Amino acid sequence: MGGPDGPGQWWREGAAMAGRRGALIVLEGVDRAGKSTQSRKLVDALCAEGHRAELLRFPERSTEIGKLLSSYLEKKSEVEDHSVHLLFSANRWEHVPLMKEKLSQGITLVVDRYAFSGVAFTSAKELQLAEAAARGEFGRERYESGPFQQRALQRFQQLLADPSLPWKTVNASRSIEDVHREIRALSEDAIRAAAHRPLGQLWA
Ligand code: 2DT
Ligand code: MG
Predict the structure, then answer these.
(1) Contacts of 118 by beta carbon, 8 Å cutoff, 6+ apart
(2) Which of 67, 73, 137 to mutate to test the pocket of ligand 1 (most atoms within 8 A of CB)?
(3) Ligand closest in space to the Cα of 148
(4) How far is CA 152 from the centre of its chain?
(5) Coil, strand, or helix at residue 152?
(6) Rounded to the nearest whole angstrom, what is the distance from the C-alpha of residue 182 to the centroid of ligand 2?
(7) Where does ligand 1 bind, in terms of residues with CB under 6 Å?
(8) What is the pLDDT of residues 42-88, one digit of tens each?
(9) Which of 84, 127, 173, 181 has the fewest Cβ atoms nearer than 10 Å?
(10) Whole-angstrom Cα distance, residue 169 to residue 112?
(11) What is the residue with the minimal CA distance to atom 9 of ligand 1?
């Protein structure tokens, strides 16, 4: 018995259906909140506990689109605001097939920034025009100023207020280990909850 690929094919399909999918765990927040440190620690801890977990970050600067974004962020090039917003979005979409594949294989993805950074940073930008001229922050990446980050934080808080989004707020002004413990516990809950729930969409 078996299809064109032989009995192995049936077994793999059976195993995939019986298997648990991975969770999509996104860490969002302003610059220097500790997202990158916490994402790495979370992946290490989940793997040590026997989960399959991998780290992703956006913008993912290694692709062609990512290189355009990196150059823009480093202020080596100028890109029109709407266009750059769409490049950030395209940079996520180009990874979606791979992300879906990994999630369906049971791999949990820990993501350092995702679409919420896209909303928060672009909308924070709309407010900055007058002040931008007065600032002289050379040698730093675009958006890395206190007032800009403050506006991005306000936008994140507005997004958090939407009860249909499953966000958990973590107070990042504690020790790395304390923050890590809380994020790990929340992530374990998320992994359990996701296991038998079909993959949904962010803003469906
Ligand atoms: P990192 O310092 O984390 O590499 O981020 N950004 C990010 C946007 O403006 N839109 C987006 O969609 C994303 C994902 C936030 C570099 C900067 O890129 C901003 C900070
Ligand atoms: Mg940065």
Answers:
(1) 85, 88, 89, 92
(2) 73
(3) 1
(4) 16
(5) helix
(6) 23
(7) 31, 58-59, 73, 88, 113, 117-118, 121, 143
(8) 999 999 999 999 999 999 999 999 999 999 999 999 999 999 999 99
(9) 173
(10) 15
(11) 121
